[in-house]
Write a structure and sequence with these properties.
The complex is a heterotrimer of chains A (392), B (449) and C (560).
Chain A lengths: L27 E11 L17 H8 L2 H9 L4 H11 L2 E2 L11 H7 L8 E3 L5 E4 L49 H6 L3 H7 L1 H4 L10 E8 L5 E10 L16 E3 L9 E8 L2 E4 L2 E9 L2 E16 L5 E10 H11 L9 H11 L2 E3 L6 E17 L13
Parallel strand pairs in A: 7-14
Antiparallel strand pairs in A: 1-5, 1-14, 2-4, 3-4, 5-6, 6-8, 8-9, 9-11, 10-11, 11-12, 12-14, 13-14
Chain B lengths: L24 H9 L2 H5 L10 E7 L5 H4 L5 E2 L17 E5 L15 H8 L14 H9 L8 E3 L24 H8 L16 H10 L4 H9 L2 H23 L25 H20 L5 E5 L16 H7 L10 H22 L2 E2 L2 E2 L4 E7 L14 E4 L10 E4 L6 H10 L24
Parallel strand pairs in B: 1-5, 1-8, 3-10, 4-5
Antiparallel strand pairs in B: 2-10, 3-9, 6-7, 8-9
Helix pairs in contact in B: 6-10, 7-9, 10-12
Chain C lengths: L2 H10 L30 E3 L2 H12 L19 H4 L7 H18 L5 H4 L12 H16 L5 H17 L4 H13 L2 H4 E3 L2 E3 L7 E3 L1 H12 L6 H9 L5 H13 L3 H12 L22 H19 L12 E4 L4 H4 L9 E4 L13 H6 L8 H12 L27 H10 L1 H14 L14 E2 L2 E2 L3 E4 L2 E4 L1 H10 L2 H15 L8 H13 L4 H9 L14 H10 L4
Antiparallel strand pairs in C: 1-2, 3-4, 5-6, 7-8, 9-10
Helix pairs in contact in C: 4-8, 6-7, 6-8, 7-8, 10-11, 13-14, 17-19, 18-19, 21-22, 21-23, 22-23
Classes of the chains: A alpha+beta (392), B alpha/beta (449), C mainly alpha (560).
């Protein structure tokens, strides 16, 4: 009934005090867990967004002959319009199937009558195969009408390519040459606007089921240190909330063993700001019906270590179109009123500005800015030396 | 006394395998209680019952801002009572009554409260030998309703109660709106206005198995010491009371014009935040008004906060009680502002309570007209634990027996004069009450109508 | 006189009854003299935990026991001692009656009756009376912790038969009603001592075997006596030293002893008060809704591991750097944990955490919702650990406090409390409590460690009994070395075991137990074993206030 030797003190690492890291780097380790993370937007106006982007349903309605529009418009219920849309465009939906995986998708999709090579898995309300404007946006260019690109000059982000291009943005702090083509592509869209507002975004925890851990090692001086290292992991369990519903500080998390979600970079701390070299990393994103990843290339972290122990800043780099489109694909027809997948995806493809495909020469990634707020946490690894822990 | 199938008397003939077996437990009430006055106050007599209750709050007031300046009817409303403006005519304020300590220690937040409720101060719970006055009143008028008395608090803690037969026998409180609803309006609730009534034999069964006299019990009582015997007696008395309550369930309750089933409340957690507490208190007050209108009880105790007061505001490190001792008097205002805020909100809650009772029509007037409520605290000025001028208030007109809306400012008589007065009004045969320097025999005749 | 009421009750219920009414309630020839001390209680109400455990052991753990219990009363710091002063209020009896019905209905329902009743009306027993008799005899023995007397058995059977008729002939419902009556009985709800002439000491009285079984079981396992213990009572084994020791050793060796030990520690540390602790969410966001429950569990697990399983030195609870930890508490301790469930952490030398006074159950349990309280913590150390009552203020204390209107800004709690200590009226009490609690100021109201308060480095110096210390670790060591602490625990454990306050006649037993505790290097199982194998523990000489008996007891001295 009492504690056994194996129970005792298997915990170490990431506590305050000296610790030897895997790379042999001495110094303190500070770890964090990310709560809110989002693509931030600035205030828009008639110059930056002259027209309001339309959701796919509105685009469809507007494309109908007037008498049909009147007929549909008479009833406030959008379901008739959606049904018509589905029929006209030939969207398909397979039966509910909780055993659907990416592995058996092709076979199930064929069985459900989807066009070969098309469609994706959608999860609302239960898993099913679907072929529609969001799984294959390029098949429905007509629904991209009415898209409004962001024409403003200001936007969040960093200068990723070292150049000040003609179409680059100016950062919110005045930095020139900011690369955030994502924002230019879809910044006017409803979703970008409301969830991108920092007043909202800074307080909404996303991906609670699959949060991201940051581990900063080799810290000799938390204000100015020319050599630190950063590890990024996906946490193996959901995020804990505190008594006010915000991210709980000082909880302990194990990383998932899957190396696909591991990222590593060297960095430095200048005046309390952590800056890393560019590195590739895939961040988990599991938010309500979307179970997707953000695959980032050449991402830099630029974040401030605050006196209260929190870390806030952002990832700045290139997100692959594939991972962006995977998230859109899963929305299926859910957002059909607020969002036009064809409009946004086609815009993203058009504005993609990095990582050209060697065969097609088309860019496969787009510059983004991902803002986050993180609180202190413990990252727990197995088999670390020593059995003693320290409280902070 | 009335026999037969009255609300209080009840005879089952031939039901138990032959012979006239009188399950007439209320028979004992007549023989052993001798409470003839109680009979007159019950429902069968055709008059509306007069109810009694107490309302308690912890940590007192700021006397200068609570006591009115003018006496008599139409008194001025001081700042901490401003929230009672619309119910002022129902509320009497009693100031200037002290707790004589007779050389005993002033046990902070305790002595004063116990003096008001039992007739003399005490230094600790174990030293209290007398029942609280609500228990005395319930003994006189409490039988004949489903609950002899109801003890309530919105603070989530069943130990927040100042109703007891002695210091070791506290009547625990129902500590939340949801539990109050479940106990009062749950499966055992008989709607007095419902057209159908079928006596449920399960009540008979429950009653019949509760008490049984056995040879072994007799021998037990013989060998117990006096103190243990008294405790065993208390157990048997409690059995009897529960049996009486079950017997009532077998009779159709007389109609109650204002009785309505209240809505079931949610399951909000109890809180020490004063705004949250006040909201839960309001819910429980309104439910209590319905319980009274439905004649579930005639005696109740509501403790808004525990003695010493656990109240605070979310986000503030220092609560009511600490403020009374630590907050400095503001030089411009002349009083402790945070303390003043807490007291005022507590008095506003008292206003909510009065309002809830006055909102129910009954007979020619309201429920409040047919009740008498004594509100009091455990100290007067929290900062120095003073028990001079212990704040007390009355609400209601006791069925027309007393006037309301007066300010009586006394010159230092013991607080027990108030306790004596309310007992007499409620029909407890007491010419005098209290012990030592707290013993009094003059009621407050100024109150009588 | 209260007695005739019972008499009339009986006759009205049609129960045949022989010699009633003539019996004098005193039952004894001598009238107690005015100077005779008050008898020690023979009735002790089961605590809520004891009630629940008893039902689980007698009828099975799947029997639901839901509802409120009449709150237990704390006397001299122990709920166990309050058990011998409380009775049952009408509200309390309603609750017991509801619980009794709930349990009884489950016991006889279709899902349980095969296992728990095991018989019914059948050709050999058409009206089921033999089944009922066997059922009540078996269950009654377990519930009343002694065999049912003939009149009790007859009553239970009569109740069942009557109920069966009233309920349309449902046999098992009738049985359930009879069981409900037993469960509502004073004989179940209270442990009732019965005494006999002491076979080894003529002229003295001692508890009979059944009472001893009850004591052993509720003390060591916090539950009703099991069948083996009841058999030992029946055979008379518990009346012999060897038989008593054998059962005591069996119970202490069992894993179930950990439950009994937990209950002792829980009462000793007054942890049932933790149920009403809540913290301000915006001031202490890390203190989640279930944190206080986890904190209680942490403290109890730690004590059981250290003192019972580990048979450690009791005093080490004040200094031990090992403590259980889980994912609910670890953020408050800022300690990493390998798993969210329970594990054990050990803090290194030099760490601010070590000992029970640095655990959240103590720190948060004796604080306000939004801040720490040196006063509450100091009071807890004095009262709980040192058995020293903080006295009530003396009579005629003038509480009119000097009003300093210069309005300084207090930055630390120590500064705030200076006002307590500088005014003589306040200081009379506060100078005993505050200096102890001030040593714990590095832990805020939620038990989280802090170096500074409002930017000022915390000064954690304090003193107790003229011994000075700086900070919680040193305080723990000072209390570890203070002989009052283990002496207090020994006295508390004796009070807990006896289930009542101590009286002067208990003096020799108390001194003996304190010595045994010291001699056993402060091992708690040894202390408890010493108590339950001590003949004086079972003495019933104080049960009745007769002058003769008491004089005899004094003359014989304490034979331990």
């Amino acid at each position: 009934m009492g504690p056994t030797a194996t129970q005792l003190g298997l915990v170490a690492l990431a506590a305050a005090g000296a610790a030897v890291t895997a790379t042999g780097n001495h110094g303190e380790t500070r770890s964090f867990i990310i709560g809110p993370m989002y693509m931030p937007s600035v205030e828009v106006d008639a110059t930056s967004c002259p027209t309001k982007p339309k959701g796919a349903l509105a685009v469809f309605r507007d494309s109908l002959p007037p008498d049909q529009q009147a007929q549909l418009g008479a009833s406030k219920d959008p379901r008739a319009a959606v049904a018509l849309m589905i029929k006209q465009f030939g969207f398909k939906r397979g039966p509910d199937d909780d055993t659907l995986t990416r592995a058996n998708f092709a076979e199930r999709a064929l069985a459900a009558g989807l066009p070969p090579g098309k469609g994706a898995i959608s999860s609302y309300p239960r898993r099913h195969v679907a072929y529609d404007l969001c799984t294959n946006p390029a098949d429905f260019p007509a629904l991209a009408a009415g898209h409004q690109e962001y024409l403003g000059k200001i936007g969040y982000g960093m200068n990723l390519d070292g150049k000040v291009g003609r179409h680059d943005l100016i950062g919110v702090d005045g930095e020139k040459g900011v690369d955030n083509a994502w924002y230019q592509a879809v910044g006017c869209a409803n979703i970008a606007r409301s969830t991108g507002d920092p007043k909202v975004g800074d307080n909404v925890i996303v991906s609670r089921q699959a949060p991201t851990l940051l581990e900063v090692t080799g810290i000799d001086d938390p204000v100015n240190d020319d050599s630190v290292e950063v590890n990024v992991y996906a946490a193996a369990r959901p995020l804990d909330l505190d008594a006010t519903g915000k991210t709980l500080a000082w909880a302990s998390y194990r990383p998932v063993p899957d190396r696909a979600f591991f990222g590593h970079a060297k960095g430095r701390i200048e005046g309390g700001v952590l800056i890393t070299e560019p590195f590739d990393v895939t961040l988990r994103m599991h938010e309500s019906i979307i179970d997707s990843n953000r695959e980032l290339k050449a991402a830099r972290i630029n974040a401030t270590l605050r006196p209260d122990g929190t870390l806030d800043g952002g990832f700045y780099g290139y997100q692959t179109l594939a991972s962006l489109e995977d998230a859109y694909a899963q929305t299926s027809t859910i957002g059909i009123e607020m969002l036009s997948c064809p409009a946004e995806v086609l815009a993203l493809r058009k504005h993609a500005d990095g990582y050209p495909d060697p065969r097609t020469h088309r860019n496969t990634a787009i510059s983004v800015a991902l803002r986050f707020k993180a609180v202190p946490a413990f990252v727990v690894h197995d088999g670390a030396p020593g059995g003693k822990v320290a409280s902070k | 006394m009335a026999r037969g199938t009255t609300r209080r008397g009840f005879v089952l003939r031939g039901l138990l395998g032959g012979g006239a077996v009188t399950l007439g437990l209320p028979l004992f009430d007549c023989v052993l209680d001798g409470s003839g006055k109680a009979m007159a106050a019950t429902l069968g007599g055709g008059r509306l019952p007069v109810r009694f209750g107490t309302w308690f709050w912890g940590s007192g007031v700021i006397p200068d801002r609570w006591a009115p300046r003018q006496t008599g009817a139409d008194y001025d409303l001081p700042p901490q009572l401003a929230g009672l403006k619309d119910v002022k005519q129902h509320v009497s304020v009693l100031s200037g009554f002290d707790v004589p300590l007779s050389g005993e220690a002033n046990s902070p937040h305790f002595s004063g409260n116990i003096a008001v409720r039992t007739g003399s101060p005490a230094e600790g719970w174990q030293k209290i030998a007398a029942p609280s006055l609500d228990v005395l009143i319930a003994d006189a008028i409490g039988s004949g309703s489903v609950f002899r008395s109801l003890n309530l608090t919105p603070d989530g803690n069943p130990r927040t109660s100042y109703s007891f037969r002695n210091g070791n026998a506290m009547n625990a409180s129902i500590p939340s709106p949801l539990e109050m609803y479940q106990q009062l309006f749950g499966p055992d609730f008989q709607d007095p206005n419902s057209a159908n009534f079928t006596p449920d034999p399960r009540y008979m069964v429950r009653r019949s198995v509760l008490s049984g006299v056995t040879e072994e019990r007799r021998r037990l009582m013989q060998r117990l010491g006096a103190a243990d015997r008294a405790r065993a007696d208390q157990y048997f008395t409690s059995v009897r009371e529960v049996e009486q309550k079950l017997a009532l369930q077998l009779q159709k309750p007389p109609p109650a014009e204002s009785c309505r089933m209240p809505a079931k409340p949610g399951n909000a957690a109890a809180s020490t935040d004063i705004a949250t507490r006040a909201a839960a208190h309001k819910l429980m007050s309104e439910m209590l008004a319905m319980a009274l209108a439905c004649n579930q009880t005639k005696v109740f105790n509501m403790a808004f906060s525990i003695a010493l007061s656990d109240l605070r505001r979310d986000g503030a490190a220092t609560g009511f009680h600490q403020c009374t001792h630590e907050e400095l008097t503001d030089r411009t205002l002349g009083y402790q502002p945070t303390v003043d805020g807490f007291v005022t909100e507590t008095m506003n809650a008292w206003g909510d309570f009065v309002r809830a009772m006055a909102a129910v029509k009954e007979g020619d007037g309201t429920l409040l007209d047919n009740m008498l409520v004594l509100a009091h605290s455990d100290v007067s000025f929290g900062k120095n634990h003073s028990v001079t001028g212990l704040p007390m208030m009355l609400a209601g007109r006791a069925g027309g027996k007393i006037r309301s809306g007066l300010h009586i400012s006394n010159g230092g008589d013991p607080v027990t004069r108030v306790g004596l007065t309310v007992q007499q009004i409620m029909g407890v045969p007491a010419d005098a009450w209290g012990a030592g320097d707290c013993r009094v025999n003059r009621p407050l005749v100024e109150l009588y109508a | 006189m209260k007695f005739p009421r019972l008499v009339m009750l009986a006759s009205v219920l049609g129960i045949a009854w022989a010699t009633i009414g003539a019996a004098s309630p005193e039952g004894e020839a001598t009238t107690p003299s005015a100077e005779a001390p008050v008898a020690t209680a023979q009735l002790r109400r089961l605590t809520e935990a004891q009630y629940r455990n008893s039902i689980a052991d007698i009828f099975g753990g799947d029997i639901k026991v839901a509802g409120r219990f009449e709150p237990d009363l704390r006397v001299d710091g122990l709920l166990a001692a309050g058990a011998s002063t409380v009775s049952v209020t009408p509200g309390g009896l309603e609750q017991y009656e509801a619980l009794a019905r709930m349990v009884a209905e489950q016991v006889v329902d279709a899902g349980h009756r095969q296992k728990l009743v095991g018989c019914g009306p059948d050709p050999a027993d058409p009206d089921g009376r033999q089944c009922a008799r066997a059922f009540f005899e078996r269950v009654g023995l377990r519930l009343y912790r002694r065999p049912l007397g003939p009149s009790e058995l007859a009553l239970a059977m009569a109740n069942s038969a009557r109920a069966q008729k009233l309920l349309g002939g449902d046999y098992y419902a009738g049985l359930g009603a009879g069981l409900s009556g037993l469960l509502s009985g004073i004989e179940f709800i209270f442990q009732i001592d019965n005494d006999v002439a002491d076979p080894s000491r003529p002229g003295h009285r001692t508890l009979d075997g059944w009472s001893r079984a009850s004591r052993l079981s509720y003390l060591l396992w916090n539950t009703a006596p099991d069948e083996e213990l009841l058999a030992a009572a029946r055979s008379g084994a518990l009346m012999t030293d060897a038989g008593l020791a054998a059962q005591a050793d069996r119970l202490i060796a069992s894993p179930r002893f950990l439950v009994g030990a937990r209950a002792l520690f829980d009462d000793y540390l007054r942890f049932d008060d933790l149920a009403t602790v809540s913290k301000d969410a915006s001031i202490y966001p890390g203190f989640r809704a279930d944190a206080i429950v986890a904190a209680r569990e942490q403290a109890l697990r730690g004590l059981v591991d250290l003192l019972i399983v580990g048979r450690g030195d009791f005093r080490d609870m004040l200094t031990s750097r090992r403590m259980p930890m889980n994912g609910m508490l670890s953020p408050l301790y800022r300690t990493p944990v390998a798993e969210q469930g329970w594990s054990v952490v050990e803090y290194p030398a030099g760490d601010p955490r070590g000992g029970i006074l640095t655990q959240i159950a103590f720190l948060a349990g004796h604080s306000h919702p939004g801040r720490s309280s040196p006063t509450l913590r100091g009071k807890a150390v004095l009262e709980i650990l040192m058995c020293e009552e903080v006295p009530a203020p003396p009579a005629n204390v003038n509480f009119t406090v000097v009003q300093d209107v210069s309005n300084p800004k207090y930055q630390t709690t120590r500064q705030r409390l200076e006002a307590h200590l500088s005014d003589e009226e306040c200081a009379s009490c506060h100078k005993r409590m505050d200096p102890i609690g001030l040593a714990l100021e590095n832990f805020d109201g939620a038990g989280q460690y802090r170096r500074t308060e409002n930017g000022v480095v915390i000064d954690a110096r304090g003193q107790v009994d003229k011994v000075k210390f700086n900070g919680a670790i040193e305080l723990g060591q000072v209390l570890h070395d203070n002989p009052k602490v283990p002496a207090c625990f020994a006295a508390t454990t004796l009070r807990y075991s006896l289930g009542r306050r101590l009286v002067p006649a208990d003096g020799p037993l108390l001194e003996a137990m304190k010595s045994r505790f010291t001699a056993a290097n402060y091992r708690v199982p040894d202390l408890i074993r010493a108590i339950v194998t001590s003949p004086a523990y079972y003495s019933a000489d104080l049960a009745r206030p007769t002058g003769q008996r008491l004089v005899r007891a004094r003359r014989a001295g304490g034979q331990l």
